[in-house]
Amino acid sequence: xxxxxxxxxxxxxxxxxxxxxxxxxxxxxxxxxxxxxxxxxxxxxxxxxxxxxxxxxxxxxxxxxxxxxxxxxxxxxxxxxxxxxxxxxxxxxxxxxxxxxxxxxxxxxxxxxxxxxxxxxxxxxxxxxxxxxxxxxxxxxxxxxxxxxxxxxxxxxxxxxxxxxxxxxxxxxxxxxxxxxxxxxxxxxxxxxxxxxxxxxxxxxxxxxxxxxxxxxxxxxxxxxxxxxxxxxxxxxxxxxxxxxxxxxxxxxxxxxxxxxxxxxxxxxxxxxxxxxxxxxxxxxxxxxxxx
Amino acid sequence: xxxxxxxxxxxxxxxxxxxxxxxxxxxxxxxxxxxxxxxxxxxxxxxxxxxxxxxxxxxxxxxxxxxxxxxxxxxxxxxxxxxxxxxxxxxxxxxxxxxxxxxxxxxxxxxxxxxxxxxxxxxxxxxxxxxxxxxxxxxxxxxxxxxxxxxxxxxxxxxxxxxxxxxxxxxxxxxxxxxxxxxxxxxxxxxxxxxxxxxxxxxxxxxxxxxxxxxxxxxxxxxxxxxxxxxxxxxxxxxxxxxxxxxxxxxxxxxxxxxxxxxxxxxxxxxxxxxxxxxxxxxxxxxxxxxxxxxxxxxxxxxxxxxxxxxxxxxxxxxxxxxxxxxxxxxxxxxxxxxxxxxxxx
Lengths: 292, 346
What we know:
Chain A has helices at 2-17, 19-23, 39-44, 58-66, 75-78, 249-254, 258-261, 272-276; strands at residues 29-34, 94-100, 107-114, 120-124, 142-148, 151-157, 162-165, 169-171, 176-184, 187-195, 204-212. Chain A is α+β, with helices and mostly antiparallel strands and 292 residues long. The termini of chain A are far apart.
């Protein structure tokens, strides 16, 4: 009897000791995106002037208002990658793999590759510190990861300036991100929290789902900038404050009150739905046919 | 490596020495007597900064190039078998720490300093650092003008840097003679070959000041920009000393023209800014876009007949202020510099 009790204690102790390891669900492999949320924005593309649900401040609003789509066609912007806090939302296949220390067999780093722009992120798992402030910033930033239960939590610093939306809603190079990877069987949920002291008044939380797809193909992303439009050196397309003629298209087309389309933290929360009902709307304009 | 002929070196040094003598001589009679200076009470000086706690950090860039951070303006160090070339020298009180940082990279001597402009956070260390170095010279040079010709590193700069440092207002001498550039140029470019690498000094007229030099290390593929490009605030356009928004933008556009990024517009040519973090051309593009947009806005407001105060009140920088205008008054100073630059043309 005593031997049985000791055996049970040893077994329970062993199980408890290894629970963290059991809880770590393997995120590696090939995944394809599932567009069951924010489909319009993520596939067809966001609308100019749609800041709804984004906790941007006045500075972010003016920068967004000033953005001109012609900026993207400048050679220096054509191949620019999404940031690692945004790339997950695109129509990208995802591959995740590991670097393993051959001596200890511990995971030193996870790597992610998104087919859009071929963006690759390294997530260091070996406890190394983040670089000093004078080190370079990159599209993907510098990332470290740790397991919190069955979630891989990634902390990213040293991001280059980028956008929260393709329509020029800015995210600064002072931003940091925390990304939670949660695997539920063959579904991988990526929850991204962006903290930006420059353009956000509250953290922005967004999620994207992927489906395990070991048979999927990872297409290369060759990108070579070319001069599409002959412009004088140094020209930067933009709208002067108050002069963007396209800002009312989104609220008019979708029946969204213009005030709500301006976004802000308040527009993220469910109670804002009640306030929406009291707001004035613009006369509707015809919807464009969806490409999808 | 390409060097001036010994005769040219001697001639240049003699010319510099003559210029220094003339400037010094002209300046002396105009210096205000001590009694006159006492007549105007000086404003309370801010508390002196304790430099003993500041550190110089070294960051490998790529190729032969390192970035030294913390001595005032950023310093670029090119290190190789021929010795060390520094772009800028930091603040005077940090010079010994800069020397220690360089010593940590190599035992080879400092041969050259290139000043990107005359401000003290980039030239303050000239005298101490140059004296710790040694010029590549010999033969007739040493024979003609003595060993002192080779007893310090050569200090390169655009002509107006020497003008500013030797006689900024035609009355007073601004800096000790030992801190002045020893080799000046007046052409759009000046080239060196050092440490197996072609080095191009590019003068950008009327940009941050009237004496800006950007330095392109061609094999290492690194551009050292001076204060034409910084990451920690709006550009400081020193209009009083010949700076201008159009030259500032010409400088930024020159960086974008020279730099070749790798995939995804990243890496490739790296850029050492005058202040702030190590960058590549994508960072410069964001900065150039910001400066251009604000220039265009101010130009539009001037076109509407607004005064400087009205333009400031319109806050044409307000979307960039949380990122670049966090220092009190810096946004207004930038707007004022842009306004004055553009108004001077009308």
